[in-house]
């Protein structure tokens, strides 16, 4: 999928677009994310660097406050928007 197709999801709330996206990988990332945040209110972001062009969200890590749980997302196949 081209990066232009993914740009329509950047900056939108995960709760609004979760039916169009699937998670395929997760990693830990440095940084604190508040545990009070609702996962549906997290904003979808576009990765840079080695994972340039991939969509992700950062969720709180319940085991450690120094790291966040980064979930990488992809657009579902057969989606009318893709």
Q: What do the pLDDT scores average to? A: 90
Number of strands: 4
**Structural class of the secondary structure composition?**
mainly beta
Rg, Cα atoms, Å: 13 Å
Distance between the termini: 8 Å
Q: Number of helical runs?
A: 2
Q: Could you give a short account of the major beta sheet?
A: 4 strands, antiparallel
Characterize the overall form: globular
Secondary-structure element series:
HHEEEE
- Low-pLDDT parts are none
Query: How are strands sequenced across the largest beta sheet?
Result: 1-4-3-2
Beta-strand content estimate: 25-35%
The helix content, as a percent range, equals: under 10%
Give a quick precis of the structure.
The protein is mainly beta and 82 residues long.
């Amino acid at each position: 999928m081209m990066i232009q197709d993914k740009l329509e999801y950047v900056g939108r709330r995960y709760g609004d677009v979760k039916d169009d996206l699937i998670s395929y990988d997760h990693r830990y990332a440095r940084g604190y994310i508040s545990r009070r945040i609702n996962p549906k209110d997290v904003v979808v972001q576009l990765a840079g660097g080695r994972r340039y062009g991939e969509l992700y969200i950062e969720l709180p890590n319940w085991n450690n406050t120094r790291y966040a749980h980064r979930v990488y997302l992809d657009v579902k196949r057969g989606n009318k928007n893709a």
